[in-house]
Recover the amino acids of this structure.
């Protein structure tokens, strides 16, 4: 019975993906209202479309910040691509294909800069209470890589940041439902377009996207977008959110750069894009690392500039191996980059303004 | 031409195209020379970038099927603090032989700088795989190619298209070699009002399609029956059947350079950031069948102040531009169609 349900859901999702083809997704806030009406409760265009992946957010009330936990039901092979110049991470060495542990139980994305790494502590505790982890003698050690972004300057007291409590609550809240996007979880305090100095940035957040092929291969992404750079829709080359001119139009960081225009040097601690790509394919640890590396191209395409010295850009990969089909890593990696770019654009279009910082949807009015 | 005339001419150049009016290529960077040698027997060849003076270098090696030498030397934790030349070559791993010829040419004292007898030329190199193009895969660039390319190196505008390391380069191979298009070598440069200059040279032999990031449009790639571009992004997303990717057919190689002063670690960051240019202009990029490699060079001849992120971001920008130029400037070789003939 459970198998049947999964098959039906997969088929519906596959049809939707094919119908969508490469057409840009409906990127407005109205999309959320539209799609459920067409296919109630059956379309999941987010990372939880990958069976076995659950996502939970926890957003702090005191300041716009929070954390997002990607839980693996069972476990998954993991990888990472860490290319930004100002990273804040844990357990990324473990993901090196040369190292032994090849299973991941959860990944934590959090605000709060390096303080936010503490969120993983709470997720580890939640997993231990549920007896989930890498078998190590009598105990099980939860494997929880994490990466953080810097949002301490947004919306008041920088002493307020995600702690172990945040990671515990987000893990407990994790579900297979379509992931809420925008100004929430690790994306609650995220901003973009900081290449023009303070007061010209925009609110971004967390976004998610999935691609389902007729074969049953699923590749999906979730990304918390807090970049120095502008957000670009790679399908058109146009700015979606970024540095604003005084009249509210986009300045376009690419133009600012080429003109040698004055700008504030990005401060190391204000940025970072962090995310997870997941697939239902079966991958070795090396191929999971390759998937993460190729997925990173989604950052390059949807963020300009990307991977700066002031960004801690990091992306994790998860392969659940629940799908038995055959897919080339080139296809999986290429789709991962596509899904990441989609998720980044959604992070910008789904965000709502916070702490006086406008979001893309505010500019459209 | 008098200096006053030159200033007038430069002032006439629109602000949006602040590149050296007569040379928007890698040799716009003072202190770099570029030479190609293209083999007559088969479309393949090599390209040598010569350093005239102290040049700091870094590398980003992200494709899964690389063919390189002396890239470990570029690790910031390792000792060497300069390079004498960088070699890009066709011929797959055989083409690494080209660097031997460049070393010999430098060792013989032909370089534009004075060598002490004990100096060992530092010549990192990377290769692309073009053995299937034009028959006779046993023909590949050797040490002689490197020697000749070094001897031919000049400060002139870099010739682009189906020459040097780009002579046998192709793109758009995801639906099979018979649907591929000609790649090549391309170059681009940007100069800011303050004098900072960033330039790129790319030999484009990608598995994927070449995309113009400014519009999102395919410039060259996998072709349909009627010769139109299929757009592999669409094919990938719909799960259309693709050729199984073969390792021995691809790779994009690039050199980005700046006249700014960079440490070795900074040069590596610039190479890493420049690699975003490959991601933007090639889809898919960094595959298991591509040996994508980007070298970054800093001559330090401009003493102004520039932010590392500014240099890295511009490097990504000009590299994407160079990749688009590589396919736009390519000419037909071995019957493989080119972008300039589409519509």
């Amino acid at each position: 019975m459970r198998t049947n349900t999964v098959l039906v859901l997969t088929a519906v999702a596959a049809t939707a993906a094919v119908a969508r083809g490469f057409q840009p997704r409906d990127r407005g806030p109205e999309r959320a209202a539209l799609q459920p009406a067409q296919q109630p409760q059956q379309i999941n265009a987010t990372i939880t479309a990958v069976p076995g992946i659950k996502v939970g957010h926890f957003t702090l009330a005191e300041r716009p910040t929070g954390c997002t936990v990607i839980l693996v039901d069972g476990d998954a092979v993991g990888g990472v691509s860490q290319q930004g110049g100002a990273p804040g991470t844990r357990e990324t060495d473990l993901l090196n294909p040369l190292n032994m542990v090849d299973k991941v139980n959860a990944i934590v994305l959090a605000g709060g800069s390096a303080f936010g790494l503490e969120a993983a502590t709470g997720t580890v505790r939640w997993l231990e209470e549920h007896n989930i982890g890498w078998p190590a003698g009598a105990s099980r050690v939860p494997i929880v890589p994490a990466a953080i972004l810097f949002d301490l300057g947004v919306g008041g007291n920088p002493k307020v940041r995600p702690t172990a409590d945040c990671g515990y609550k987000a893990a407990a809240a994790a579900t297979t439902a379509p992931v809420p996007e925008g100004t929430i979880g690790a994306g609650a305090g995220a901003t973009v377009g900081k290449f023009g100095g303070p007061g010209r940035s925009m609110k971004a957040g967390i976004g998610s996207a999935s691609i389902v092929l007729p074969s049953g291969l699923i590749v999906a992404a979730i990304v918390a977008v807090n970049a120095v750079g502008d957000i670009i829709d790679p399908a058109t080359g146009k700015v979606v959110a970024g540095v604003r001119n005084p009249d509210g139009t986009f300045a376009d960081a690419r133009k600012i750069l080429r003109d040698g225009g004055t700008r504030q040097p990005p401060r190391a601690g204000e940025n970072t894009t962090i995310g997870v790509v997941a697939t239902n394919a079966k991958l070795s640890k090396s191929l999971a690392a390759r998937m993460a590396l190729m997925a990173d191209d989604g950052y390059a395409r949807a963020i300009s500039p990307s991977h700066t010295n002031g960004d801690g850009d990091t992306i994790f990969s998860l392969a659940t191996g629940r799908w038995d089909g055959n897919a080339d890593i080139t296809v999986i990696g290429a789709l991962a980059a596509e899904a990441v770019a989609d998720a980044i654009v959604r992070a910008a279009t789904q965000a709502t303004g916070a702490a006086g910082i406008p979001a893309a949807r505010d500019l459209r009015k | 031409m008098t200096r006053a005339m030159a200033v007038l001419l430069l002032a006439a150049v629109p602000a949006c195209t602040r590149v050296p009016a007569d040379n928007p290529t890698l040799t716009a960077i003072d202190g770099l020379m570029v030479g190609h040698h293209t083999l007559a027997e088969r479309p393949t060849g090599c390209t040598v970038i010569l350093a005239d003076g102290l040049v700091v270098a870094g590398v980003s090696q992200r494709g899964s099927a690389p063919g390189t030498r002396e890239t470990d030397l570029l690790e910031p934790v390792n000792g060497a603090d300069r390079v004498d030349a960088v070699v890009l070559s066709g011929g797959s791993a055989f083409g690494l032989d080209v660097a031997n010829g460049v070393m010999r040419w430098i060792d013989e004292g032909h370089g534009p700088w004075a060598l002490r007898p004990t100096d060992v030329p530092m010549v990192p190199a990377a290769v692309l795989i073009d053995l299937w193009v034009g028959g006779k895969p046993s023909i590949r660039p050797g040490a002689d190619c490197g020697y000749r390319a070094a001897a031919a190196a000049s400060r002139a505008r870099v010739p682009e298209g189906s020459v040097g390391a780009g002579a046998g380069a192709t793109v758009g191979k995801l639906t099979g070699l018979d649907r591929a298009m000609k790649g090549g070598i391309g170059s681009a440069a940007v100069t800011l009002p303050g004098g900072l200059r960033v330039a790129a040279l790319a030999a484009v032999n990608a598995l994927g399609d070449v995309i113009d990031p400014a519009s999102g449009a395919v410039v060259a790639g996998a072709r349909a029956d009627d010769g139109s571009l299929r757009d592999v992004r669409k094919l990938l997303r719909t799960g259309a059947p693709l050729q199984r990717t073969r390792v021995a057919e691809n790779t994009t190689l690039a050199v980005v350079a700046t006249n700014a002063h960079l440490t070795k670690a900074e040069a590596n960051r610039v190479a890493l950031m420049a690699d975003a240019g490959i991601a933007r202009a090639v889809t898919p990029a960094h595959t298991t069948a591509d040996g994508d490699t980007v070298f970054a060079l800093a001559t330090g001849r401009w003493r102004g102040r520039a932010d590392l992120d500014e240099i890295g971001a511009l490097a990504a920008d000009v590299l994407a531009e160079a990749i688009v130029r590589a396919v736009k400037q390519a000419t037909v070789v071995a019957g493989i169609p080119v972008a300039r003939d589409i519509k």
User: Anything to note?
Assistant: Chain B touches chain A through 55 residues (CB under 8 Å). Chain B has one domain: 18-341. Residues 18-341 of chain B form a domain with the L-amino peptidase D-ALA esterase/amidase fold (CATH 3.60.70.12). Helices of chain B lie at 3-12, 98-107, 143-152, 232-238, 264-281, 308-329.
